[in-house]
Amino acid sequence: MTEPFQYGIVIVGNEILSRSGSIVNYTADVFLENLRKNPACPHVVIVWGEEEYYKKAIQKAFRRKAFASGEEPTEWNFQGDFELSALGEAINSMPFFGGGNWIVLEDPKVLADKEKAGSKKTGAKGKKKKAAPLEQFIQLLTDVPEYSFVICLCSKLDKRQTFYKTMSKKVQVVECSPLRPYQLQPWLRQQADQYGARFTPEAMSLVMEYVSATDTAPLLFLQQEIGKIALYAGERKLWQAQDVAQMFSQLPEISGFALGNAVEERKLGKVLSLLAEEKKNSGNDGFYNLTLRLVSSLRRMLQVKELMEKGARQETIASTLKMHPYAVKMAMQHSNHFSRESLQTCMVELARMTAESRKSGRTWSRLEEILVKLVSERKKIPYGI
How much is the mean pLDDT over the chain? Predict the structure, then answer.
């Protein structure tokens, strides 16, 4: 299937816009798969968005597609503020020894500058005025010879501006949006497939639980740890929950999860030991990150508790809060350990502590007091029950 690359398709998150203006669903994963299967290869790809995993994956796959195995292209790298004349030389210089040009652009400053319309009106002597830098940049990227391949990596793009509107009609434009934790399962299966392995349901649930308190799934971090699981498991291609726990439990990023879990389970001794370990290993940044994780954990329990009180079941709660069913199951169990008032009070105290700590207030000792109070507090049973 060569049509997407030959006739110009715009990939924007989950959408693909053809020149005819029709819209169909499309994702970065599908783009990567299409790049792998399609015999044709684009010469320019614009990649933008917050998710570094997809940006790195697209860059690697595009380079592999553009050049034969063992072929070493002439490499050019441009970052931030660079001369457009130098970019033009890179794009249009035919390599002496073949192999083509591989050109990587990272956050070009010309896109951050305020858009200025170039003038084509003739001056007093009948000469055309020089095109604006943005117009020159667009012209360079829309007239790339067959021996050059360009990838432009941008943190952000403004869909209202000329660059986006023009380039999306002429080259491949891919938006790399982060995945939410509840969207992670297909990605995890794909990662395991690369090793000829698969997660057991329990192992999959444990990974989901680790990331359930985060706003977006840390894909680069997870990819790295999955590689370690594959190495640890060796010939075993069915990855168990203990394989996941063995690798993830050794990481500083997971210790915050362990503390939050201990709080939810009301294990005071474990809370105190984990908190002491966090204090020993972390500075102020660790303190604030840990507090944010704890607040997120408490908020999740409070939301689950409120929905439970309204009669919502596990499936409804998972759908409403966009959470993995296993994470909902655990939150439902843990929320029974606390009253709504105690969760609300703890969240308020954590917020006040954070604000006061930025004005030379107490940090770790105050956090310990708040958690001890929450975990030790006896749940109030409604009168008559």
Answer: 82
Task: Please tell me the predicted confidence (pLDDT) of residue 13.
Answer: 40
- Output DSSP code: residue 147: T
Kindly indicate the confidence band of residue 313, based on its pLDDT and cuts at 50, 70 and 90: very high
DSSP designation for 122? B
Task: Please report, for residues 11, 41, 48, 220, the alpha-carbon distance to residue 32 in angstroms, rounded to integers and kept in the order given.
Answer: 11, 12, 15, 17
The owner of tokens 């000329």 is 162
CA distances from 120 to 135, 161, 248, 310 (A): 11, 19, 60, 66
Q: Which residues pair with 74 in a beta bridge?
A: 101
Tokens representing residue 336 in the block? 């029974």
| Alpha-carbon separation of residue 187 from 63, 190, 193, 198, 200 (angstroms) | 22, 5, 10, 12, 15
CA gap 61, 56 in Å, rounded: 9
Most confident of 77-86, 122-131, 355-364: 77-86
The structure's pTM equals 0.66
Token pair 């299409």 is found at 34
Q: Which amino acid is at 131?
A: A
87-126 residues labelled b (16+ CB within 10 A) or e (exposed): beebbeeeeeeebbbbbbbebbebbeeeeeeeeeeeeeee
Record the tokens describing residue 189, joined without a space.
């299966």
Strands (E), the chain: 10-12, 15-17, 23-25, 44-49, 74-79, 101-106, 148-154, 172-176, 198-199, 238-239
d(CA 103, CA 152): 8
Residue 119: the pLDDT is 46
